[in-house]
Amino acid sequence: MKYSENVPPQIVHQGVDTLRTAHIITKLENYAKYENLLAHLSDLKAEAIARNAKFEFESGISFDFYTFGKFFIRPKGQGRYRYVIYNQDIEIFFSTVTFSANNFSTPQIVVDYRAKYLSLTGHQKAYDLVNDMLFSLLSLDTDLIYRDFLNTQLMRIDLATDIMGIEYTPLDKYRFQTNFKNQGHIEFKEHIQYNRLTGFSFGKGDYMMRIYNKRHQLNNDASKLWLTLLWVKNGYPEDVRPSVWRHETQMRRPYLKRFRPQGITDEVQFFFDMLPKLWTFSFSKVQFVDITNEQALKVMDAGYTPDALRQLFYRTKMYAPSSVWSLAGNWQGIQAPPPEDYGHYNQFDQSTAKRFYKAFISTAYKAGNGDPLNVLKIMDLVQNELETYNGITLHDYGENKLLSSFIDNAQFISQNGLVIDRDFKALSGKLYYGMIERFTALDDPQFDSNERRLAMLFKTDVHDLRNNINMYLTEINYDGEIQPQVIEYQMGDY
Question: What is the pTM of this model?
Answer without folding.
Answer: 0.73
